[in-house]
Fold this protein.
Amino acid sequence: MEHYVVGFLFDYDSPMVLLLRKTHPSWQAGKLNGIGGHIEEGESPIEAMEREFFEEAGLKINRWKHFATLECPEKYRCIFYSAKLRRDEPEPCSKTEEKIEWVDSLDLPSDVIDNLKWLIPLSKDYQVDRPVEIFTS
């Protein structure tokens, strides 16, 4: 089974969320997705989230909140996090060939990965007091 992390970074003062314009894998090419990747051997999910975000967006964020886990048994498990960017922090900048973009989380563009249409609103639901587990086939 493959293990992944994905994070959504929100602006403190607006509904904007930072997403990544994917170039790979091929089924994601040209679409917007959260920032993340594989969990490496010996790494905890939160360590992977912090590392992936730094590698792709150039910021060290250490206040990620786990809000959901999406699992397809025997195939993959993806842990989703959210955080907010404080005004006194540097602006993120792409550190890879994939570009990062601020998009309006209240009016997501049509080229987001499909599950972001419900994962992003879920990440902002402050009535959810523990991570949601979603199983798919």
